[in-house]
Each structure stands twice: as C-alpha cells, then as structure tokens.
Amino acid sequence: MKRRALRALTAMIAAAGTLLMTPVVAGQAHADTVICEKYGATTIAGGKYVVINNNWGDDTQQCINVTSTGFSITQASHNKPQNGAPGSYPAVYAGCHYANCSTGSQLPMRVSDSRFPTIQTSVSMTYPSSGVYDAAYDVWFDPTARTDGQNTGAELMVWLNHTGSVQPVGSRVGTASIAGGTWDVWFGNIGWNVVSYVRTSPTSSINFAVNSFYTDMVSRGYAQNSWYITSVQAGFEPWVGGAGLAVNTFSYSVGGTGGGDTTPPSAPSGLTASNVTSSGATLSWNASTDNVGVTGYDVSRNGTVIGTAVGTSYNVTGLSASTAYSFSVRARDAAGNTSSPSNTVSVTTPPGGGGGGSCRVAYVKNEWPGGFTANLTITNTGTAAVNGWTLAFAFPGDQRITSSWNATVSQSGTSVTARNAAHNGSIPPGGNATFGFQGTWNTSDASPASYTLNGSACTVG
C-alpha cells in the first residue's frame, strides 16, 4: 500500500513525499466506520487485520465503509490514464505496513521458516458494473525483517480481475497453473521486483497458500528464500471510478489445523511427445489439480528427474540420435507433496546428420553479480535458405530469462526455445540472424554447450 509510488509517477510522488507519510489510524471498527482521510486506517477482527483507505495516487476524495469483515468503496471519482499509475490501493491486510502492524500475524517471517508454507489466505470480493480497476492481492517481501518503510525485495501481486486496458508493471514472461487457475506471469523492476500473476479467467474469490506463488517466483529467479514476508494485503487499484468495489471477507492464518497440507496433487494425464528430432523433443500434458495449488512439475527421463516445468509443456534437449527414451511427469504442490507419475511416453530419436549440421551459433554474454545479458548470432552455413527458425538449447546453470529482443523466447526449467521475429525469419546461405535476452542467475551463469536449429544440431562458436 502506498505501494505504487514508483510506478509511472515515481519521481513526482517521491518528491512530494507520499511514500513517507504515516497512515492516520482510527480506533478498531465495531459498527461500520466510514474513512475518507487519504491514509486513514482502522482495525477489524480484534486487531487481527488493518483496513486502510490509501488514496496515495489521487487528490480527489475517496471514502470507504469498513465493516466487521472487510470494506467497500462508497465514494471515488478517479480518472487516471490507463497507461499510468492507479489512483489508490484501499485494502485489508495482515502484517506490517509502514510501522502499522496488525496483531498476531507472526510477520515479518523468513521464507525459510518452517511456518511459511503454512501461511494461507482467502478473500471474497464484489465488483461493480462500471469503472476501470484491478482486484488484487499485494504480498510484500524484504531482505530484512522490516516493519516500516518501503520493502525492497519483491512485490507479489495476484490479480483476480481487471477491466479496461490496464496491465501490471513490466512485461509478460510466461504462464503458470497455481491455486486452481491459469495465470499470465508478468515481471518488472521499479527498485524492487514486481511479479504479477493475472488470472486468465476472472474470479471474485480465492483461497491459496502464499508459498504456492512464491515458489514459482523463486524458480524464475525473481525472489530468494532468505527474504522475509512482511504483509499480505487484498484490495483494489482503481484508475476510473471505483465506487462499489468491495472486500466482503478476508482471512489470513499461519499453521492452519491438522499439521498442514498433506494431500498430493492429482497425477498429470495425457502426456505426449511431439517435434521429435535427433537431439530433442517437446513434451505436453494435461494440468493436475490440487486442494491448494499446483506449483510445478518434475520431468523424468528413464526414471531420473531432468528438469522442472511451471506450465504443462517441457522442451527436452541433449538427446542422442537413434536412441530410445521414456518420459514421465509428476506434479508438486506448495507443501512439497508430489503426485503419482503420469502415463509414460516413449520416443526413439531419428538418425542425426552428424558434423554439426548447417548452422553455427555464437553466444556472447555480459555478466554481473546476479544478472546478465546475452546476444546470440545464428549463421546459416548451408546452401539453402532457412525460412522460419526455432533455436533450442539448455542452460547448464540456474539462469532465468526476464526479457528478450528480436525473438520470442520461452523457458521451461533449464530448457530455452527461441523463435524468430517477423523481421528475421529468413536466413540466406552465409547470412545470419541475431537476438538476445536479459536474465538473472544465482550460483552459475555458464554458457550453453549445444544448440539445435529446427531440430538439427549446430556447431558452436
């Protein structure tokens, strides 16, 4: 909350000092309480949750009616450009925000703490028929056990619904199946990492373990297990209007009952293999279901795990020509439960062309602690033009791609696939095409050792 000051209006809002303002705290809400103060706040449920008006991005008046279980926006006339920052973020939260802490949340809490996987939250919302807004969770993480000021680790946003043309910070980097839904994943950095999960089919309610999303963030290289969770917030970002948006109920708990989640996901089904070449194949399967949420899939070759996938496909690389392989997949949930294996699919790779094919790939990187950029050049060493190309390779380290240029680049585990852009799909004999990407790394940023172009192996260098 006060959380978007570095979105589109960073310099102006920071100069105005809004990030440093302290919420105006009223007493605990018993009967309905109306708050119109810009940063007015109160508590509900015996102090377990804090409700804040948080009209940080607009000078027009916004009022909320706080009930015993949530709040509704009763007055708002926002009219903000949809390509900029929203007008406000009225929300209910557990934890600490700018030194205003709820009671009994056990936050801040280190992610590596054994209690973290048991953090559970739910919300039920009402949406009006007009206005432009998003309805979203905002979960904050910091490298320290911070209770005041701006968190600088990561901001996890879970968008349940949105209208108009508004979109999260950064750019779309993939999809994920979590908490019973399919989400577009967005990433950007505005002084801290902002990772947004936008539900592809809107919902007005959700119940999930925070760890189910955070595990995916860590797997993509956007968060660290050494950080601390500081607050769990649910509310709205209105750009236009906003009256009628309501949080009907909100819950937050640590530990739950019965010792935590012990129910494994269902087994993935319908595993198939396609695009089988002398050195690789594409695996696809149907999503598993889980009582809390599937966080990923372990892919096995001949009984040994070779990688993980967030979505329901995986590009296998590094296979040998004229060789038989068997593959299977297991699903994982936030509590670490694993499913039974999927059906097994068997493939036999065709004979290879030998000698590195008719292509050469050069990989040039610029590296710094925790980050890198790489530029790749594909040279056509053959006698026929290449019309449309797909380059596949695997990272030997723990790199995670965050953005790319001159190609459509996707990553599943360590496997990377790059497809040509509209302007560089044709490579004449002796010609080349270039593209690149930026990413993060933790323990190793070693360069890929092999590549395939449209299924055929390339020489390196």
Automatic annotation (TrEMBL):
Domain called Fibronectin type-III: residue spans: 267-352
Protein name: Glycosyl hydrolase family 5
Signal sequence annotation: 1-26
Pfam families: CBM_2 (PF00553), fn3 (PF00041), Glyco_hydro_12 (PF01670)
Domain of life: Bacteria
Family as reported in the entry's similarity comment: Belongs to the glycosyl hydrolase 12 (cellulase H) family.
InterPro entries (UniProt xref): CBD2, CBM2/CBM3_carb-bd_dom_sf, CBM2_carb-bd_dom_sf, ConA-like_dom_sf, FN3_dom, FN3_sf, GH11/12, GH12
Record key words, sorted: Carbohydrate metabolism, Glycosidase, Hydrolase, Polysaccharide degradation, Signal
Residue ranges of domain CBM2 in the record: 352-461
One BP term from GO: polysaccharide catabolic process
Native organism: Sphaerisporangium album
Region of interest: Disordered: 334-355
A GO term, aspect molecular function: cellulase activity
Biased composition annotated in UniProt, kind: Low complexity: 337-350
